[in-house]
Automatic annotation (TrEMBL), chain A:
One Gene Ontology molecular-function label: cadmium ion transmembrane transporter activity
Pfam families registered for this protein in UniProt: Nramp
InterPro entries: NRAMP_fam (IPR001046)
UniProt main location, coarse: membrane
Compartments where found: Membrane
Domain of life assignment: Bacteria
Protein name per Swiss-Prot or TrEMBL: NRAMP (Natural resistance-associated macrophage protein)-like metal ion transporter
Entry keyword annotation includes Transport: yes
GO cellular component: plasma membrane
Keywords from the named record: Membrane, Symport, Transmembrane, Transmembrane helix, Transport
Biological processes annotated in GO: iron ion transmembrane transport
Source species of the chain: Rhizobium loti (Mesorhizobium loti)
Transmembrane intervals: 37-56, 77-96, 108-129, 141-158, 178-199, 220-246, 266-287, 316-336, 342-364, 376-400
TrEMBL record, chain B:
One Gene Ontology term of the molecular function aspect: metal ion binding
UniProt superkingdom: Bacteria
Protein's name in the database: Mono/diheme cytochrome c family protein
Residues in the signal sequence: none
From TrEMBL, chain C:
UniProt name for this protein: Uncharacterized protein
Domain of life: Bacteria
Record lineage: Bacteria, Pseudomonadati, Pseudomonadota, Alphaproteobacteria, Hyphomicrobiales
Length: 406, 427, 119
């Protein structure tokens, strides 16, 4: 019974981690522009993150190490510097996008321009990290995050042609806008396979003192939780495809188009639900990424870390998240368009994945760390293939997108 | 003791006696020898790296896949066969023939060590550098922009400035603050016509005190009392610009709110003067107002004061007058390269920032022979104890201090007498 | 033992299980006719920067000396005979508060973090 509770809580938590501004924005864009055609990207991304999260949890449970620790020890600091810098940079961009997402939700709710909200949002997030404990943040945010289920409900209520939805699960060549098609595919992959997500997960497992008895729990949480998250992304895509397409919007290039998505289904409450979903999902992600930045730096340099410690006892750790919250709020406060930033940072995430995932895979095949719980052939192959696909697509399509300009 | 840092050996290329590369050091093996841990072997070659990463099978498969396995893959070299006295440039101490007998247990075809990786390394250095520079620059700019914004310390609704001010008392604040010396229109006798415009030359450019008469268009007639408070205490204009510190808000910043209120009431009673002064002509560095924000970050602490209080009401009144309202230190100190007062030279005199001479030291280093009454009399009459008269800008100051009640001049004198002696800095 | 694999860059815990950093460097004594002997492990930003190259190393040493004083101009060393247990983490028989390793964190706490309400 206790295990069951733990698993369900874990699933809810991972949904909270999965669904953030990146997933919502990329899925909405893809749905509006290409209908159901990009569903395969969400599926691939979800499969990949299921594997990665499961590995991260397994690694932490068996070895007692977080991923950052492991990479540093095994590859040496000089090699570790690369994934560290890449992840810090990517996290910075994504976190900025998340703050932008909350700010947009606040703008939709109040009518006051989003850039004014960036600093207050960052401050509120900082307050949560400053005063909160790990469990409070993890669980509180996750349970509120269930509001995003409204997208799944909406998708079902719209009664899409399920055969067409299934057809979208098979990759197909685009009929128009090839460059933006592949760029969107990359962004979706990047949004689903966030490095912060599985790195955060491993830190969380260490903070929660997981051991080998948690391997089954871990598998259930990773599999069900991430599928759950993927389903919600799918819901967003379906709703966007049906509603926005019907309104003649085939390109989402402004956040103000988003509320339209749920209004035809739920009326005024659709607007409220969308604002709430956006705000909660992005705020949760802001907290997690902020924490992840601090984990990463502290673990990378061997400092003391832990969200449950009082700031006074862990000044360096708290300093890192304080500083990163402040810095990431600045681009939004200066008026950078959160939607553009989101899409772009998701594509960059996909491009940076090999740097973090490859060393991680090697660790998971190292008996000294994971003993007999090493990776099987299938998980190795699946992750390598998907990450390689994301990387190649990113390297090709990011320049195209920048040059082609949208 | 001759020591060496072993971590520098990791990944270093080992050169043979003839300067040819034999591979990179990937592992250093050590063994317990009694109480000591001693280095026994160096492992060189790509397979040593695979071994270290526990990725032998994977690595071999990858190498085979790309047909790259034509290199010497693993040497286990005893400690005495490599010279590590310079860990950045390890050198082989034996011949290549001897080396070939130290091969590890992996089948390998003969072949020269490829120099792959050099191009990548150079690229990555450039990229790493560019990324670091860009990130730092962006971060610094963003932080500076945020931190240098002019934020008025008081909102319009601030309760502490509510209610009418006392005009008579405001007149004394005005006199003690020596406002007229700078803000009175030059070239006419009425010191209460505050049209501004006197040129103040400084190493940082020419500044002209603005019109602070109650004229609604050209003066400060449109100001609220909080605007005045924000200017005096925060150095921030109603348009949310920084004031140049030629305006001594660095001292005024600790002014009491009631004094602001009274001063405001008094300024309202003065004659309106029309006409604006030309804009300041600051040196290039400060021509962007925002840069004053940086200066303030470095040298300005809002609402702080250098005054020392000792509980004696007369002395403490003097401290407030000298350090805050009358801003004596602004002239009687030496300034640093950025135009801020060097704390160690406060009141010890120095070169006049306007470049018109030398401002005297007023610490006990020079004023030992003066009594409190001497100082008070000087502030009233301008006469010094040795039957001279104060000159230049101090004579303007005395015009104002002469209007203060005797007790205030006595208070100033008491505080000045209490200043610890500091030698006059050499110009 | 394989020094690079088993020791370098591992987490270091002090006597009270406080995470004090990682093994950033290993110091060996060169002896005439005898194998080099490991005498100390080094911790801290100077050692770390030196691994990135001599220029970053000099820069970091200068910075450390500039801001931390003479005491911090050299990397922190822990003698080899203080190293107790080398497993997942490296445990040393040292009390971190008696070393200068956490000086900068103390500074950060006293000057910045500790001044924010609720710390």
């Amino acid at each position: 019974m206790k295990k069951l509770l733990e698993i369900s809580l874990g699933i809810v938590t991972s949904v909270g981690g999965f669904l953030e501004v990146g997933s919502m924005a990329t899925a909405a864009q893809a749905g509006a522009t290409f209908g159901f055609q990009l569903i395969w990207a969400i599926l691939l991304g979800t499969i990949c993150i299921i594997f990665l999260v499961e590995m991260a949890g397994r690694f932490a449970a068996v070895s007692g190490h977080t991923i950052a620790d492991g990479i540093r020890e095994r590859f040496g600091f000089n090699a570790f510097l690369w994934p560290l810098l890449a992840t810090l940079l990517v996290n910075f961009m994504v976190m900025s996008a998340e703050i932008g997402g909350v700010s947009i939700a606040a703008e939709l709710a109040t009518g006051i321009g989003f850039q004014w909200w960036a600093l207050p949002v960052a401050f509120l997030a900082w307050l949560f990290l400053w005063k909160g404990t790990f469990g409070f943040i993890e669980k509180g945010v996750a349970i509120l995050g269930l509001v995003t289920l409204c997208f799944v409900v909406g998708a079902v209520m719209l009664e899409p042609d399920w055969r067409q939805v299934a057809a979208g699960a098979v990759p197909s060549l685009p009929g128009h806008d090839a460059a933006s098609y592949w760029f969107m595919a990359v962004s979706i992959l990047g949004a689903s396979i966030s490095p912060y997500l599985f790195m955060f997960y491993s830190s969380g497992a260490v903070e929660d003192h997981w051991d080998k008895t948690y391997l089954g729990t871990n598998r259930a949480i990773a599999g069900l939780g991430m599928s759950f998250g993927g389903t919600i992304s799918l819901g967003v895509l379906i709703v966007a495809a049906l509603v926005l397409g019907a309104h003649g919007i085939n390109q989402v290039n402004d956040y103000h188009q988003l509320p339209l998505m749920l209004i035809p289904i739920f009326g005024f409450w659709g607007f409220v639900l969308l604002v709430a979903s956006l705000a909660i999902a992005c705020f949760g992600a802001t907290l997690e990424i902020g924490l992840q930045q601090a984990y990463l730096v502290a673990q990378g340099f061997g400092w003391t870390w832990g969200e449950d410690l009082k700031p006074r006892n862990d000044p360096a750790f708290c300093g890192v998240y304080t500083l990163s919250l402040l810095l990431t709020a600045i681009p939004i406060a200066l008026g950078l368009d959160p939607l553009k930033l989101t899409i772009f940072s998701m594509a960059v995430t996909a491009a940076s994945l090999p740097l973090t995932v490859v060393p991680f895979l090697i660790l998971l095949n190292d008996e000294r760390y994971v003993g007999e719980h090493g990776n099987g052939m299938i998980s190795n192959a699946a992750v390598i293939l998907i990450v390689a696909l994301g990387f190649v697509l990113a390297v090709v399509s990011i320049p195209l997108q920048i040059l082609g300009g949208s | 003791m001759d020591t060496v840092n072993l971590e520098h050996l990791a990944g270093r290329r080992v050169l043979s006696l003839r300067g040819k590369s034999v591979g990179h050091i990937e592992e250093i093996r050590a063994e317990q020898d009694g109480d000591d841990m001693v280095v026994t072997e160096f492992h060189v070659g790509i397979f040593a790296a695979f071994e270290r990463l526990s990725a032998l099978a994977l690595g071999t498969a990858v190498l085979d896949f790309f047909h790259l396995r034509h290199r010497d893959c693993l040497y286990r070299i005893p400690w005495d066969k490599i010279d590590i006295s310079d860990p950045v440039r390890p050198r082989l101490r034996c011949t290549l023939e001897q080396l070939s007998q130290m091969k590890g247990g992996f089948e390998s075809k003969r072949g020269a060590k490829s120099s792959k990786g050099l191009g990548i390394a150079r690229w990555s250095t450039v990229l790493r550098f560019a990324l670091a520079v860009f990130l730092c620059a962006a971060a610094v700019c963003a932080v500076l922009w945020y931190m240098t914004a002019a934020r008025p310390p008081f909102g319009e609704q601030d309760r502490q400035f509510e209610g009418p001010g006392n005009v008579a008392h405001g007149k004394l604040v005005f006199a003690a603050g020596d406002c007229a010396s700078c803000h009175a229109t030059p070239g006419q006798p009425d010191r209460l016509r505050l049209g501004g415009g006197m040129a103040i030359a400084s190493p940082f450019g020419t500044f002209r005190p603005p019109n602070i008469s109650p004229d609604a268009v050209d003066g400060i007639g449109g100001w609220t009392v909080t605007d005045l408070a924000n200017a005096l205490i925060g150095g921030v204009s109603p348009k949310r610009d920084h004031y140049y510190p030629a305006f001594p808000y660095t001292s005024f910043t600790s002014i009491k709110p009631d004094d602001v209120k009274d001063l405001y009431a008094y300024l309202k009673t003065l004659p309106k003067v029309s006409g604006r002064v030309p804009p300041p002509d600051p040196a290039l560095l400060f021509s962007i107002r925002r840069s004053v924000g940086i200066w303030k970050l470095l040298f300005f602490r809002q609402r702080s004061t250098a005054a020392r209080f000792d509980g004696d009401p007369l002395h403490d009144r003097g401290a407030y007058l000298v350090e805050t309202i009358s801003h004596c230190a602004e002239c009687h100190s030496t300034r640093n390269a950025f135009g801020a007062i060097k704390p160690g030279t406060r009141f010890a005199g120095g070169i006049d920032p306007q470049g018109t001479g030398f401002v005297p030291n007023i610490t006990q280093d020079r004023l030992r022979g003066w009594t409190e009454n001497d100082i008070a009399r000087m502030l009233k009459t301008g006469e010094t104890p040795n039957h001279g008269r104060v000159g230049s800008s101090m004579s303007d100051v005395v015009t104002n201090t002469a209007m203060l009640p005797d007790s205030d001049r006595q208070a100033i004198a008491r505080y000045i007498k209490g200043l610890p002696p500091i030698a006059t800095p050499r110009p | 033992m394989d020094l690079l694999r088993d020791l370098l860059d591992k987490q270091v815990l002090d006597r009270k299980q406080v995470k004090i950093g990682k093994v950033d460097g290993l110091v060996a004594e060169l002896r005439q006719g005898k194998p080099p002997r490991v005498v100390a492990v080094e911790l801290g930003s100077i050692t770390l920067a030196r691994r990135l190259g001599s220029r970053p190393g000099r820069l970091m040493a200068w910075l450390a000396a500039r801001f931390g004083g003479e005491r911090h101009a050299e990397p922190h060393r822990i003698a080899w005979n203080k190293v107790r247990n080398i497993g997942v983490d490296v445990e040393v028989d040292v009390d971190v508060r008696r070393t200068g390793i956490f000086d900068w964190q103390d500074w950060l706490r006293d000057r910045v973090i500790g001044r924010i309400p609720g710390a």
